[in-house]
Amino acid sequence: MEPSPASKPTPAPKEQPSAMAASTLRAIASSANPTVAFTRSPPRTSGGRGGVKRARRKEEKLADEVMLVQRDIHRLEGKRDCMLDYPMQTTALNDRKSTKIMYEYCTLFEFGFDHKNKQEGLKQEQFIRSIMREDLQITGVTFTSKGVDKLIGAHRMYSSVHMNYKMQFVTCENVLDDSGAVIVTELKTIISQRITRKMLQLYYPMVFQHEALVQRLLGQMIDMAVTQLYEYDNLGRIEGYVPRIGVLEAFADLLENADLAALCALEHKLRKIFE
């Protein structure tokens, strides 16, 4: 006969660990399966700050080079547009044709390069580019220069400095080859301009050693005889330009004194306009 449920012995309650023991157990359990956390340090740049600066300078230099190339592209595109807008002159130049071109040049530049009217200035530049080679050779008495840009720049600079500038056509003579084609044109003109202090400072600095002479010159109109030789290539384009300006003779006529004229013309700096 089985005992009744009431007669079964009651099990003793389990003993709970103390707080200190529980803490110890947790520490042991944690150490049994440890987790290690790694922190990645930031990558080091080669060379440190110096490397960053060198890279930055390299980028800036490259940006400057790109800008220069873009400017050159724009300049060449402008030249191309000029050539398209003002067609190249015919290659078969005869005596009459070359003289007509020179007369047109004198008419177009009668009052110098037009700085005020942009369209007129562009027309003048287009005309020069249409009859001359890009690698135009310029030969003066004491200097040489190269490029049609130099001649255009000379026109711009000379006209900006000289007041009351005016060019007058005198004569045009041509040298022909056996076939009748023009190989050299000699153009003679008279250029009139008013003498200013700025003009003397730029081109005739020796004058300032004699203040009385400076005062005598200021405000006077001076006429200079200019001879220009134009040499043509076998396609009829101007490849050589040889200017000759009668500086000494012009001052001698103005002052009516050869010695004073020599003081003015001595070591003049007109070649600066082609530099």
Can you characterise this structure?
Residues 1-58 are annotated as: Disordered. The structure is a single chain. The chain has 275 residues and is an alpha+beta fold. The chain has two domains: 57-86; 97-273, Roll (Nuclear Transport Factor 2, Chain: A). 45% of the residues lie in helices and 21% in strands. The protein has nine helices and six strands; from the N terminus they run ααααββαββααββαα. A hairpin with a 5-residue loop joins strand 5 (221-232) and strand 6. Helix 8 (247-255) crosses helix 9 (258-265). The N and C termini lie far apart (136 Å). 16% of the residues are buried.
Quick overview:
With 275 residues, the chain is an alpha+beta fold. The protein is built from nine helices and six strands. It folds into two domains: 57-86; 97-273, Nuclear Transport Factor 2, Chain: A.
